[in-house]
Amino acid sequence: MIGERRVMRWASGGAARAFTIVEVLVVVVLLAAVAGLVAPRLTNNAARRVTAAAESTAEALSALARRDAMLSQPLALTYDQASNMLRSTVLQRDLQRNTVAWKSDALLPEADLGDAKLLAVTADGAELGVSELRIEFDQFQPRPSLRIVLTDAKGGNPVSIDMPASSLQATVVSGDIRQQPGATRAIDLDDEGKERQAW
After folding, report:
1. Nearest-CA neighbor of 61 among 113, 101, 119, 102?
2. Between 16 and 23, where is the model more confident?
3. The total number of structural domains that make up the chain
């Protein structure tokens, strides 16, 4: 009889049972725990993507440095802002047309920056413009030391790529290397007129 009254009360639109405060607190605690697990993974994904772009850039720079050491052909590193890619180009002569043009080299890898943003590029300590970046490696001059800084789309998670002039291998460093101690420009004593000065 009592069960029949409850069924009739629900069917007739009587007062429905509400959530207790304990049930609401349990749901809030569960949602907070899930958010605590998911949020760090979302931020780590951005950092991982920047690191992957930095490793791709380091690989491309290392290949370009090895190519520069082996050949006496003019090379250049260019940035294509539309596709967000760093490309290595080589100066090639077309003997049939008697022309010279910069062309992408199929043997040198490209660096797809993906979601990463090119924040800064320095060559021998001098900061270069990023939008129309082009660094030519003169076959008669030493290769410049390069530093490239990448960030995520929001400007966070900086990762640097360091390529000293004397090295054939670029290294990936966490953080903005320009702000770290010892990130100063290499000085050529001959260029400074101090070739006879002890160092």
Report:
1. 113
2. 23
3. 1
- Two tokens, residue 82: 């539309």
Amino acid identity of 98? N
Q: Tokens 């290294």 map to which residue?
A: 171
* Residue 90 forms part of a structural domain: yes
How many Å apart are CA 97 and CA 63, to the nearest integer?
30
Give residue for tokens 């030493």.
Answer: 142
Residue 142 lies in a domain: yes
Say if pTM beats, i.e. exceeds, 0.70. no
Domain containing residue 156: CATH number: 3.55.40
Q: Looking at the domain assignment, is residue 49 inside a domain?
A: no
* Per-residue pLDDT tens over the stretch 30-80: 998 888 887 776 666 778 888 888 999 999 989 888 888 887 788 888 888
Structural domain span for residue 94:
61-179
CA nearest to 120, candidates 48, 67, 172, 177: 177
Residue 78's pLDDT is 87
